[in-house]
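Annotated sample (chain length 408).
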Amino acid sequence: MKSIQFDYSIPRYVFSKVVGRWKPSLYWHPRLSCLRLREVEEPTLPNSDWVKVNVTYGGICGSDLNLIFLNDSPATSPYASFPFTIGHEIVGKVSETGSQVTHLKKGDRVVIDPILSCMSRGFSTPCKACERGEYSLCSHMTEGDISPGLLIGACKDTGGSWGPVIVAHKTQILPLPDEVDDLNGVLIEPFSCALHAVLKNRPKPQDKILVIGAGVIGISVIAAIRALDISCHITALVKHPFQGDLAHTFGADEVIYLTRNGAYIDKTANVLNAKVLKPIYGPPVIEGGADIVYECVGKKQSINDALRFAQSGGKVVLLGLASIMDGIDWTTVWLNELEVKGSFAYSTGEFEGKKMRTLEIAIELIRQKKVDLSPMISHRFPIENYKEAIYTATNKSTDSVMKVVFEH
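Output written by the structure step:
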C-alpha cells in the first residue's frame, strides 16, 4: 500500500533545513527530503486487543506541517519512531478485529483517539496521569508493546492516516453514530484539541474572551465555547477574510483583522475596554484586556499579543505549536500575575454529569447538532497528490484554505 512517511536521516534533514528556507518545495522533495511516498506493508495487529481500520479521510494538521518544515523542537524526537506514516486525524471503517475485541465489528464507522498511552502499550497498572484520565500526559510513551510515539502518526508500528490502513488499540476506537458523517468525523480529533482547552479553562458567561488565530484550532475554540452553550463575549483576531467569515459563522461576536501597521492593537483594546499606553520605546502596552486569551498560532507576534491582551489576573492558554523562539516579552506574566497554561491534545472531561473522553464529548455535541464542523473542510486530495496537498495547506490565502484532507 502507498503511504506518506517521515524517514529521518541526518543528510536529508540538514539539506532540507538549510536549503528549504529558500525553496520550500524541497521540504517535500521525493529524494532530498525526509518525506517519502512509498510502498509499505500493512501494519499488523500487535496483539488480540487491537483493531485494523481502513482510513476514509486523513487530515493534514498544523503539527504535520510543522514536522515537514522541520520546525519541531528536538525535545519531541524521543517520542517518535522512524520511519513512521504521518497522520493522526482519522475517520474510517473497521476491517479486522483481534479476538479480545467484542464491541466492534467489520464495517463499523469509527474515529480514533490517537494517543498511545498506558492502555495501548499494554501496561496493566496505569501511570498517575492515565489513572486520572489525562492520557495525553502519559509517562510511558516510549515503552510497552509498541515502539515509541506520542500518538498514531508518530509511531512506526501503527501506520497513520496519510496511508490507507492503521491499527489501534480497542480503547482508542470510538464508533460513530449515523448522525455524524465522515466529514465531521475527520475533524473530531482537531476539534477535541480545542474542546479540551475550553473544558480545562472554561469561560464564565460574563467573561471577555480573545481567540488569536483562526485556523482550524482557533475556529474550533469558538465552536466549542458555543457548543457548550457558554454565552461569553468572544473576539477573534484573524488574518484572512474567509477566516473572519467562519469566525462569525461559528459564534464570534467581534472579528478584528491583523494589520501590518498595528491598527489592530487599538481596535482590539477598544473592544476589550482596555487602554493603550505608549512606553519609552517598543510596542504599545495594554492596560486591561481579556479574561482568557486562547493563543492558537504559536508564533512570536501571537504569543506577545496574547500576553499583553490578557488583563491583570487573567489567563493565557497556549494551543499554538510554539517551539524554540526568541523575542517573547514575559514582563506582563509577573507584572499582571497572569496564569499561563499549555494545552496538548485531549483527555477526559465532564459532560452532562458524566466523565467522558474528550472525543466522545465531541461526537455527542455533533450528534446533538450543537455544532457542524464540515464547513471547515475546504480541499480534498488523493494520497498520490500529496505535493499539491501540502502546497495548498501551506498557502492559505491563495485559495481560502482551511482544512485539507486526504481521501482514500
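Annotation: The first strand starts at residue 2 and ends at 6.
Annotation: The chain has a mean pLDDT of 96.
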